[in-house]
Amino acid sequence: MKRLLLILPILLFFYSCADNGAQAEDKSDKKSRFQKYTDCVPRSLKKSSALAKEGGYTGALTLDVVIRDFQSNHPDFENFSEVAAEHLDDVYNYKTSTGTAMNLNGYDVTWYSNAPYHYTCGNALLGSGVQIGADGLPMMVNPALPAYLQTVSSEKALEYGDCTRHNLGSFQQGYKNATDDVSGYKCVAGDMTWSNPVIYTPGMVSPHLAFAPGASSEIDMLNDVKILKATEACDNQYFEQWYADVPGVNKRINTTMDIPKDPNGTKYFIFEQNYNNGGFFPLDSIDPVTRSWISAKYPDQFDPQSLSIYCPPFDYQYAHTQQDAWGQNTYKLCQSWLNYGGPRAVNSAGSGLSAAALAAAENGKLGLQHLRNYGFTMMGYAKFKYKLSNQVPLPETFEFVGDDDMWIFVDGVLVVDLGGTHAPAPGKVDIKVLAYNNHGCHAGEPLAAYSNCAGASDVTGWADDTWHHLHIFYANRQSDGSNVYIRSSLAEVAPTRFGYPTINNVVTKVDKNGSAVNSMYLNTPLSDASVANIMSLGSPSLLVMRETNVNGKMQTVVNGFYITSIKDPIDKGADGFMYQFTGVLKDAAGNVVDGGLLADDRIAFNVPYSKGLDDDGNGGNFSNDVWNQIMSWSKLMTFVVTSSSGQQVERFEEMEWWAENLYSSERVDNPKKPEENPEIEYCED
After folding, report:
1. Domain residue spans in the chain?
2. 586-624, pLDDT tens digit by residue?
3. pLDDT digit string (tens) for 20-62?
4. Which of 52, 119, 130, 268 has an alpha carbon within 20 to 30 A of 101's alpha carbon?
5. For position 265, what pLDDT does the model report?
6. Strand, helix or coil at 576?
7. Span 512-531, mean pLDDT?
8. Are 510 and 521 within 8 A, CB to CB?
9. Farthest-apart Cα atoms in the chain, separation
10. What distance in Å separates the CA atoms of residue 245 and residue 375, rounded to the nearest whole number?
11. CA 123 to CA 128: how far, in whole Å?
12. How far apart are CA 385 and CA 574, in angstroms?
């Protein structure tokens, strides 16, 4: 089973230590070089951004993500509010050619009586909602935002629809008149078959997040945060269920979202999944070539209950001629869906017997190309560092385009408000503007007394080198599109918690008596079962790769490390979760390797052997000799290392991604506070 995103966030620690004549040593003599190299004690840990190491993966910005899966008959989902104003009676009274009545399949008297509620969604016909300008700014002041973010557009309304010109014969959608300030796909020369103004519903949520008061000084930014409803609007009657765990109503998935580095070499990270390349469906495994649905991505989720076609539940005038992105007519597929009950007809257990699944099965390849899980909400989180130097020459930004409800908060205060069911609407966060206006650090704001506001003031703004909190709330509530575009230039983001366990680095410190203390920094806590297995099952849970002089020739040797004790983790914030451990390093013959972990060792979690792992895992990332050594150790591993959120270590990353051991020794007889001891030579930043 593939995950939504398997991406390894990397945190690099660099020590620069005095060589003390090591240049004169034989560099092939690894041990003597370590003795010289480690005469200094590290003064600080330096950390890179979310970018990867040179020569390794091209890098990514990674968010922690909580997805909550809903069935499409939830009262706030699949309401077709965009047509309710003109076609309320048409929907309520509609019967298909087979006699299937929509008022017996979700569009009942309750749905009908909520018509005024549906009308509050952004609707040009009714004059509800607020239009977005062609420059991506709202065309009316939004009082839910801070005053310094209430800029209003002076442009014409932004329009979105079907492009006239297509690439490679496929149909495309995009903006008609967006300026360069707006991200997302733009139709060539603004030529459109049809287009509608982009209208959103402001003021649906409170401008402040609520954080659970904990006993400790640390707030769990993924579990102790709540977005609050401010007004009843655009079918948000049960809003308190959207981003909370509600048994029987939704199912929660903890995962990560990778925003890859721009392949064109800019400083941006870009994620784009829209109508033109298949759409944003994080709960579906999809064939990348045929775009056919393969399976649900996670074991604890509902099966897909929607189709990625526009199929309103009434006698839609354009139904006969509608085509998908390949130019295939979708009329028969839509009619099958409605004949089986329509968009809100689901199986009570959330199984594959929904109307959409039955219609897909009836229509073969065309059906599988459109079978999707549309009903979900998503909360994304990232902790990022503000540095004044990163705002020059251009400020850091975070841009988001989405086609249903979307709200972005920084330090618990709203910065982008794009509520409602709408066409893809753009929002942008300018970090420099937030910093200069002391965003989130004013009296009465939810995190004003938290660490992000240390050293901040209304006069000077945010303090340099402070960490801040980005929360994104997104909802996909209707099946006429699932579009997400993210572009960001955030330079430094903390490790994620919901990725599979990854060793960022290991720090080995040797005291004056020669005793070593190993500290391992992980991106996420380990499960209790993994900790117990590490100590009790006697497996080489860590693999250690090092360059060794063998008969005058440097060779890469892989050894196994058997952990004998491991302490509970310490949350080190942006540096990750630190585990202190002891153990024994052994070679392939089972002999103890003297000296334990040494500087420049590369370290990774071991993975239990499987034929598939052996067949697929190398991919040219390792020499055959090194890969064979890894597989030999893999055959001795008896359990899978798992995070506290259930993510498993299932493969070996490229050599460049293995953690590096940072080594130091203290050779003093009278240890004092480091700053007071002149006998210790310190590494400088």
Report:
1. 22-49+497-683
2. 999 999 999 899 988 999 999 999 998 898 777 777 899
3. 333 333 333 322 222 222 333 333 333 332 333 222 223 688 8
4. 119
5. 84
6. coil
7. 89
8. no
9. 92
10. 15
11. 5
12. 9
